């Protein structure tokens, strides 16, 4: 399903609003999209972006994944169903019996069948812009303090020394018609490929891809797992890639717009500020510069964009998808974990609430340290651990447990470690303190010398009897 097929699906499902009057990409589109996000509104297709002289008439799509409904339409199934498929894969062990080995082999073969397929035809080659000129695109400025216009929904493709592809989503500040910033953080795979490169690193940027590819580019996949394979797995068919014209990279064949070029190891330029998903501006800093060597697009191209800021925003749903889809991976290495919630107010790298089946003293602390040792979860500033019967998605219940069960001296752990680049509260950039909060029932072996009281629970027989009489009681509540 390419982007325009997805737009057609959204329109049939009543999930798309067409904005026909002229709207300015400078702040106005962002303000409208922000209101749509806060109102849990539809995807927006701006048909007439205000444009400068020489710019093409390119519609802008925003808020395409800004609801659970649209996200599941994009991925082709409910998140819980996709999580179950992932759980089925990650539960693969080296089986001892012949039947188990045959089953495991079949599952691995199924996963391999979703690997990307290289083809020759690509719709984005219909129009070649020579020389490349980013002024032809309606690139948005989303907040008044931004350092300039930013491409906010790019699929940035690079390769490592072994030739393995990486597809990430890194914002691009447009400096002029042929150069942008390349905002990859030190912890990202794209940045690792850049550090390994000899002199220059080739880069391709795809805009307007299949929404499954868009999501996959944001997913915190384990090392060596292809984002394009993951997108193929999610949608049930391989992603088709096509060779670029000026760089040795492949991009999705159904992309709307493709930019090709390179970044140079020795060149950096001031990038930012940028109104970020924390709800604050990320500060200006020096980042690599992306130089365009080619630009092409569909004849009737659609430009995708997003706005990030104080949640809820469109990216909140991408984060919630990651929460659900990657829980099986977390359980694989920490099987006592029952459930997890990443509150959108914590912008997904500041807080995790985790329930566990507690079986021995200190187990909550073990889980805290495990979380801080797992990929991008190392950035989590607050890890709250509760017992298995606690609903981690009920924030009222979670805060009740924390406020009532926690002794600050005994149950709070503070450690130092890596933090996300966007964390503005730490005294040092990318490094600072993190806190673990053990809100489980404390055992005597964990230092609780008094008897732990029982929770208040009504007699089940009384509850059943009152329920049976409810209509007779005639009360104005249920």
Which key features would you list for this structure?
478 residues, 24% strand, seven-stranded antiparallel β-sheet, alpha+beta, UbiD C-terminal domain-like
Gyration radius, rounded: 25 Å
DSSP strand count: 23
Main CATH class of the largest domain: Mainly Beta
- Give the name of the CATH architecture of the largest domain: Roll
The end-to-end span amounts to: 45 Å
CATH superfamily of the largest domain: Electron Transport, Fmn-binding Protein, Chain A
Question: How many domain modules?
Answer: 2
Instruction: Enumerate the spans where pLDDT stays under 50 for 5 or more consecutive residues.
Output: 98-105
| Residue share in helix | 25-40%
Number of helices: 15
SSE class? alpha+beta
Let me know the average pLDDT.
91
CATH fold group of the largest domain: Pnp Oxidase, Chain A
Largest sheet: 7 strands, antiparallel
- Strand-residue fraction? 15-25%
Shape: globular
Question: What does this protein look like?
Answer:
This protein has helices at 3-12, 28-38, 68-75, 79-90, 98-112, 189-196, 211-216, 227-235, 314-325, 327-333, 363-371, 395-405, 408-411, 460-468, 470-473, and strands spanning 16-19, 43-46, 60-62, 117-119, 127-128, 150-151, 155-159, 165-168, 172-173, 179-181, 200-207, 240-243, 250-252, 257-271, 274-275, 281-282, 285-297, 303-304, 337-341, 351-356, 382-387, 412-418, 431-438. With 478 residues, it is of the alpha+beta class. The protein has two domains: 3-304, Electron Transport, Fmn-binding Protein, Chain A (Pnp Oxidase, Chain A, Roll), CATH 2.30.110.10; 334-446, UbiD C-terminal domain-like (3-Layer(aba) Sandwich), CATH 3.40.1670. Strands 5, 7, 8, 10, 11, 14 and 17 form a seven-stranded antiparallel sheet that branches. It has a five-stranded mixed sheet with strand order 19-20-21-23-22, with helices on both faces. The protein has a four-stranded mixed sheet with strand order 1-2-3-18. It is globular, with a radius of gyration of 25 Å. The model is unreliable at 98-105 (pLDDT under 50).
